[in-house]
Amino acid sequence: MTDKIVVFSTCDSPEAAGRIARTLVETGVAACVNIIPGARSIYRWQGKIEESGELLLIVKSSRALLPRMMAELAKLHSYEIPEVIAVPIVDGSPAYLDWLTHELG
Fold it and tell me: Which of 10, 19, 55, 77 would give a disulfide with 82, using CB separation of 3.0 to 4.6 Å?
């Protein structure tokens, strides 16, 4: 197992996605953020079933940087409760994992 993680988050507009992704990379809490448009989310919010179009952010980082990343997301995000789900990267290409280590602040 590595110390690297993939974090999933969503946002409501291309502008928000770009701003969040760029800030996470610029502050060193992410080495890379993929922005995937076209997500359709169905969820329960404040007692009602809601449906909305969103963009999925796939963030590559490390477990040690997760608290800083969550703080950045809380500052940057328009959602009252931003999605932040971290999953471990069990293994991967040694060259890619080395690149992640090098790029993370």
Answer: 77
